[in-house]
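Please fill in the sequence for the structure shown.

STRUCTURE ENCODING:
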């Protein structure tokens, strides 16, 4: 957790809380923001727990959020943040670009979604629009997002993992990343028994019968990186 003490005056700039568990990503984003006159990072978090704590204690205008941080992460973290402050503006910066994942995140209540392949101009444009009360989606996602979602309205076009609940999808990704049931339970503040039940249901829905099969499926469909 890092609170940057040299905070700009209120309303002078858009004040960003940056949340990403990779220091090199935070360093790069800090460098990008140093080139702008109207955007400044006023705090940095590397875990979901730090985000939750700083969201309550730090004065900022927008949360720039990676969805894959530990303890907690993903849509669960978004739900908890918005439960504490329904007016919180959240812009997701993610490596994932699958339409169904983008759709789930937007439905959770975030205001914008861009990929980590975006350039500086797109990122700053997204920050300004979301901070002003608008919504933003990465232009590189728009065509695939719109047309794939349209195709998904018929059951014949739905991938098996699109039938999973948000929690089941989250557990699938954590299992595929190599986390144990106990680790997942602790991270999500649930019991081992509950996580085991989620695992059993998602494996049944995917017709997969081994952990290795889950990993192969998640990698093949871009749910986790190789």
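FILLED IN BY: designer on duty
SEQUENCE:
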């Amino acid at each position: 957790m890092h609170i940057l003490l040299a905070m700009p005056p209120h309303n002078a700039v858009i004040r960003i809380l940056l949340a990403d568990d990779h220091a090199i990503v935070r360093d790069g984003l800090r460098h990008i923001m140093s080139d702008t006159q109207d955007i400044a990072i006023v705090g940095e978090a590397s875990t979901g727990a730090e985000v939750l704590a700083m969201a309550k204690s730090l004065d900022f205008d927008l949360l720039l959020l990676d969805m894959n941080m530990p303890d907690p992460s993903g849509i669960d973290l978004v739900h908890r943040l918005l439960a504490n402050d329904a007016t919180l503006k959240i812009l997701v910066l993610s490596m994932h670009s699958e339409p169904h994942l983008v759709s789930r995140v937007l439905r959770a209540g975030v205001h914008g979604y861009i990929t980590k392949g975006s350039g500086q101009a797109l990122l700053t444009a997204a920050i300004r629009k979301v901070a002003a009360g608008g919504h933003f989606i990465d232009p590189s996602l728009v065509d695939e997002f719109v047309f794939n979602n349209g195709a998904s309205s018929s059951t014949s076009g739905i991938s098996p993992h699109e039938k999973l609940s948000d929690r089941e999808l989250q557990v699938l990704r954590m299992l595929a990343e190599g986390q144990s049931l106990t680790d997942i339970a602790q991270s999500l503040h649930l019991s081992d028994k509950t996580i085991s039940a989620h695992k059993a249901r998602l494996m049944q829905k995917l017709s997969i019968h081994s952990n290795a099969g889950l990993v192969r499926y998640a990698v093949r469909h871009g749910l986790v990186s190789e």
